[in-house]
Amino acid sequence: MSAIDPRQELADRLGLEAVPPPRFESPKDVQERLRENDYLSDDAIASVTFLADRLAKPILVEGPAGTGKTALAKAVADAVGARLIRLQCYEGLDESKALYEWNYRKQLLRIQAGRPEGSGAEEWKALEEDIFAEEFLLTRPLLEAISASEPVVLLIDEVDRVELETEALLLEILSEYQVSIPELGTVRAKQIPMVFLTSNNTRELSEALKRRCLYLYVGYPDVERERDIIVSRVPGITNALAEQIARVVRSLRTLDLKKAPSVSETLDWARTLVVLGRDEIGDEDTAATLHILLKYQSDIEKATKELLGRTKTIA
Q1: What gap in Å lies between CA 307 and CA 309, rounded to an integer?
Q2: What are the helix (H) ranges across 15-103?
Q3: How far is Cα 253 from Cα 223, in angstroms, rounded to an integer?
Q4: In this predicted structure, what is the pLDDT of residue 135?
Q5: How far is CA 97 from each of CA 20, 136, 169, 186, rounded to the nearest angstrom?
Q6: Which of 24, 49, 152, 260 could serve as a FRET partner for 104 with CA atoms 20 to 30 Å apart?
């Protein structure tokens, strides 16, 4: 008995003429190709990305802000040569901004141009059908990703910012890769997009949404991986300085802070020290530049008290 291919099943449901070849050969292939696009993944990231491609499933990526969740989707798009379509979520996001809306101005012009004198019910019905055609449709990110004919990576960023009602709009796309438009019918995907949803855990997502996705948690990297990220993303930095930075940041994250430094803030700090011409981190440099890493005065004061005098010991 042959194994069921989820991609083949989905292609059959969508009515695709052929199943596109897998994007990645193995988790190792994922790691190597992401590295070529300046994204250093760990085994979990590579494994889930590989499985999402083979199983034709979206990935829900959760974790603290600034740990590389959005960057993962961008790197995958670059690695597979796909167009990245991004839906930035926010409170109040509705169907007209996420899915589609009708071009009412264009519809009105069409009605004015096509309205016959003394028109009857049949003429009005024909005109109504005409103005609800695809040419009057304004596509938003979700519908654009579904209707695109070229390879696409769909990024639904910070999905935890929307209300539950808006979250429900996503379920049809995440499970069936299609959008239902009452006036037109069902628009099915012309290709199988890779879909990434990111969440900073500001609220609990629904079970229905989670059930449709593979789950990936992206936390803060360990010292070795963060050092490698710094070296790969900050031109001109030495391995020794990158190691020191990674260790200091790791130490800061153990403190009871309002906001722990993210990877993006670590990179900003590394670039700052390179611009200042530093080859190592001293007490004076730490005190003068902590505001690059930390965003609350109380956190800066706490970190200064904990770190100054033992920075070299940490390094």
Answers
A1: 6
A2: 27-36, 43-55, 69-80, 95-98
A3: 12
A4: 72
A5: 30, 16, 11, 19
A6: 152
Please report the pLDDT score of residue 114 as a whole number.
Answer: 60
Dist CA 255 CA 303 (whole Å): 8
> Averaged in consecutive runs of 10 residues, what is the pLDDT profile of the chain (315 residues)?
73 82 95 95 96 95 94 97 96 87 71 57 56 75 91 96 87 87 83 94 92 95 95 93 94 92 94 91 83 93 77 46
CB 198 within 8 A of CB 154: no
Instruction: Return the amino acid letter for 59.
Output: I
**The two structure tokens encoding residue 92:** 């109040």
| Paired tokens of 276 | 């200042």
Token pair belonging to 304:
């200064």
CB 264 within 8 A of CB 272: no
- Closest by CA to 248, choosing from 210, 293, 209, 214, is 293
Domain 6-95+140-217, CATH homologous superfamily name and number: P-loop containing nucleotide triphosphate hydrolases (3.40.50.300)
Let me know how many helices (H) and strands (E) the chain has, helices first: 17, 9
305 residue type, one letter: K
CB 214 within 8 A of CB 53: no
Domain boundaries along the sequence of the chain: 6-95+140-217, 101-131, 223-314
Length of the chain: 315
* Rounded Cα gap, residues 236 and 270, in angstroms: 10
Nearest to 159, CA basis, from 257, 244, 62, 231: 62
